What does this fold into?
Amino acid sequence: MIPIRKPEQEFLLDMANKKFRNKAQSVDSEIQAQAQELADKKKPGFQKLIKVDKKMATLIEAEKKYKKHIQSKDAIERKLLDDVRKKAQEVSEHLSRVKNVRSWSGVGFNDYSSRHEIDDQASDYFVSELSDACYKESHKHVEDNHEIRNILESKRELVMSIIYSGASLQNIQGELSKAYKSSGIEYHLPSTLLALPTTTQQATS
It folds into this structure.
C-alpha cells in the first residue's frame, strides 16, 4: 500500500476545512434564527420572569412625568419670553417717539438684546438710556435757567459790541472795564496795547 503523499494530504485537509467551515456557518445562521424566534416569544414576559417588571414600570412612569414637566416648562418659558419681547418692543417704540418729541440726542432705545437673558435684560438697557436722557435734559434746563450764566452771556455780547464799536481805544478800554467789572471778571488791558495810540499819534505828527 502506497502512503498518502503530502500534496494529496494538504489538498484533502484544505477541502475538509472548507466543508466544515461552510457547514458551521450554516448551523450558526440556523441557531441565530431560532434564537431570535425564541427571544421574540419570551420577550413579552421576560421582565416578569427575571422580576424587574415592576421596577421598569415605575421607571417609565417617572420618565413620563419628567418629560411632561419639561415640555410644560418649555411651553411656559416660550410664552413668557414672547410676552417679554412684546412688552420690550412696546417700550422701545414709546421711548423712540418720546425721544423725537423731546429732542434727545446721544440716546437710543433700539439696541436692547432680544435674547433677554437674566444678566442682559431689556429693562436694564432702557433704565440706563433713560438715566442718560434724564441727566441731559436736566442739565439743559438748569443751563437755560441759570441766572448768572444768562447774565454772562449777555455781558459777553456787550463786550463783543464794545470791541467792534469802532470807538477809540481809550473809550473802548473804559467801557470794557465797566462791562467786565459788572460781570465779576478781572480785566487788565496790556500796557503795550495802551501805548499804541501814542505811538500812532507820534508817527502822524
Observations:
- Residues 198-205 have pLDDT under 50 and may be disordered.
- The chain has three domains: 1-47, 53-144, 146-187.
- The CA atoms of residues 147 and 190 lie 31 Å apart.
- The radius of gyration is 50 Å.
